[in-house]
Design brief:
Elements: H1 13-22, H2 40-51
Length: 54
């Protein structure tokens, strides 16, 4: 069930597809949009600060 609308969907592949389609945000784009390394610097800084052992 979707909290925002109260819609219920069956536990089938078709129900999952219907649920996914009804709760997608419209206009959202994903992908790197021509820069495949976008976010790499932020990830690397986090990795070096928090995940690398000295």
């Amino acid at each position: 069930m979707l909290d925002a609308t109260g819609q219920e969907f069956p536990g089938t592949p078709e129900g999952y597809i219907a649920m996914r389609d009804s709760c997608k945000f419209r206009g959202h784009m994903s992908g790197h949009r021509g820069n495949e390394r976008v976010g790499y610097g932020l990830w690397l800084a986090h990795f070096q600060k928090y995940l690398l052992n000295d």
